[in-house]
Specification:
The complex is a heterodimer of chains A (263) and B (244).
Chain A lengths: L2 H16 L2 H28 L7 H30 L3 H5 L5 H31 L9 H27 L4 H15 L10 H7 L3 H15 L4 H32 L8
Helix pairs in contact in A: 1-5, 2-3, 2-5, 3-5, 3-6, 3-7, 3-9, 6-7, 6-9, 6-10, 9-10
Chain B lengths: L2 E10 L2 E11 L4 E5 L6 H8 L7 E6 L2 E2 L2 H8 L2 E4 L11 H11 L5 H11 L15 H13 L5 E5 L7 H17 L3 E5 L3 H7 L2 E6 L2 E6 L1 H7 L5 H10 L6
Parallel strand pairs in B: 3-8, 3-9, 6-7, 7-8
Antiparallel strand pairs in B: 1-2, 1-4, 4-5, 9-10
Helix pairs in contact in B: 3-4
The chains are: A mainly alpha (263), B alpha/beta (244).
């Protein structure tokens, strides 16, 4: 790995963000809207029913964590799509940069984009709804790392599709996370799902992450086994994502789609 | 750098895009790659850049095979410019040159950027976003990017397409001058025959994926009994030859 080249590719995206105020605003706007929406919904539930008492914190924390996953994945996809939209794809792939360095650069830069949006949203939730995600404490770091690995993995799978099928795969980029959301058991316990779906859901790290988040917030106890399980599952998916990306790249080279890819 | 292409074939499903071509470009020479649209020029360049996997055949650059293991090492000394690919539009010219200088591992980045800015007259729009430039300005920036790493092997795909005669001439003159002062082998794909005559030591003519003729410009003109390369190109492109 050549860190100068990784930095170069990251710099390309940092310049892009830095040079456009609307772009920064866009990064902050959507997570903040999401927090307000879920904040008011859960507040309404709390006021209207005793069943939902004290659930504002749990629903809103879940919303913040889910948005972190969503933003991680979208950030990764967006950076790749930027290369296609700007017709820079060929220039990038004829530069002496390894595929692993491209993956590393996009992975590291995606966190930068994600945090630009998520930090203001997480901070806004404190004065407006009295909910602080930071109450989860030290395990929050592990939950975020796990979500980030999985978010990047989803990004890798979508970019594999973009390399394989070209820009027409773009719509899948936006749809991919909504497809997984029902199985992720973000806002409800896994037991709500039919038994056969529970088996599939448990193969995703999301179930373990959000179960553990609820466990910490409701019972104030940390089950590190659950967290480690989530990290391992995420990492396995990440490795699969990397393999699929390499295969797609090789397929694209066979089909000759890398030379003129662009909108 | 010397490039040697041996029996290169590329098939896309049932279509043969490049059909068993072989040629050599000697070190510091310029080869013109000519042929009608769809004759396999871009696919051939794609294979020489390691962007397209050949169905069969081999490519050697300075005797080193262009296989995935050697690709990154070889790419460090190569570059490519084409009006059909662009640099990130939202980045300024300077930012783009800096990013690519870093990607190519250029040692003295600022010095190299300043050299290219002066040579290609980029001073006036250095801090402008690349997407806001005219096609002539974009073309010069693309050329600057393609020379950022002082390549030893340069692929130029229609470098003066859609440029007005003045800027087209500036680009051709610059390439000539740059080549005189630097060690550089060029593969030039172009439909501008005057440009080819001016810049190339030798040309190869492709048609339907095959090399149908090759030689110096004057050799080809004489062989086909035409007045200039334009007419020679038309004769070859329109002829019903043995391929059909």
């Amino acid at each position: 790995m050549n860190w100068n080249k990784i930095f170069a590719l990251s710099l390309r995206h940092i310049y892009l963000i830095k040079g456009s105020f609307p772009r920064i605003l866009d990064l902050i706007y959507w997570p903040s809207i999401q927090i307000f929406l879920w904040g008011f919904i859960s507040k309404f539930f709390t006021l209207s029913s005793t069943f939902y008492e004290n659930t504002v914190g749990i629903i809103l924390s879940a919303a913040i964590l889910y948005d972190f996953l969503f933003r991680s994945s979208i950030s990764y996809n967006m950076m790749f799509l930027e290369e296609i939209w700007s017709r820079n794809f060929t220039n990038l792939f004829i530069a002496p940069i390894k595929l692993s360095e491209i993956i590393a650069a996009l992975t590291l830069t995606a966190i930068f984009r994600t945090l630009i949006g998520m930090i203001p949203a997480a901070i806004l939730a404190i004065p407006f709804f009295g909910v602080s995600i930071f109450k989860i404490g030290a395990p929050l770091v592990f939950l975020l790392i796990t979500l980030y690995i999985f978010g990047v993995t989803l990004g890798l799978l979508v970019t594999s599709g973009l390399v394989r099928y070209g820009p027409s795969f773009e719509n899948i980029a936006w749809a991919s996370l909504f497809f997984l959301a029902p199985l992720g058991c973000i806002y409800y316990p896994v037991e709500i799902l039919p038994e056969w779906l529970q088996i599939i859901a448990r193969m995703l790290p999301l179930v373990h992450i959000f179960e553990e988040m609820r466990n910490i917030l409701i019972y104030d106890s940390v089950n590190y086994v659950q967290i480690v399980k989530a990290i391992i599952i995420s990492f396995i998916y990440f490795v699969i994502g990397v393999i699929i990306f390499y295969l797609s790249y090789s397929g694209a080279k066979n089909r000759g789609t890398l030379i003129n890819m662009g909108e | 750098m010397k490039i040697e292409v041996k029996n290169l074939v590329k098939k896309f499903k049932s279509t043969i895009a490049v059909d068993n071509i072989s040629f050599i470009i000697e070190k510091n020479k310029t080869l013109g790659l000519l042929g009608p649209n769809g004759c396999g020029k871009t696919t051939s360049i794609g294979m020489m850049l390691g962007l397209i996997t050949p169905t069969s055949g081999q490519i050697f650059i300075d005797e080193i095979s262009l296989i995935p293991k050697n690709r990154i090492r070889l790419l460090s000394s190569m570059n490519f410019a084409s009006p059909y690919i662009e640099l990130p539009k939202k980045l300024t010219v300077k930012q783009n040159l800096e990013v690519y200088a870093r990607l190519y591992g250029v040692k003295e980045i600022q010095k190299r950027i300043v050299e290219l800015i002066e040579d290609l007259n980029l001073q006036d729009f250095l801090n402008k976003k690349t997407g806001e430039l005219s096609s002539g300005q974009k073309n010069r920036v693309a050329l600057a990017k393609s020379l950022i790493n002082k390549p030893k092997l340069l692929f130029l795909d229609e470098p003066t397409a859609s440029l007005d005669p003045d800027i087209g001439d500036f680009v051709r003159e610059y390439i000539e001058k740059y080549k005189k002062n630097n060690e550089l082998t060029i593969l030039l794909a172009s439909h501008n025959m005057k440009e080819v005559e001016r810049l190339c030591n030798k040309v190869i003519m492709m048609k339907q994926g095959k090399i149908v003729d090759s030689g110096t410009c004057s050799e080809l003109i004489d062989k086909h009994g035409r007045k200039n390369l334009d007419e020679t190109f038309l004769k070859i492109a329109r002829s019903k030859n043995e391929l059909e």
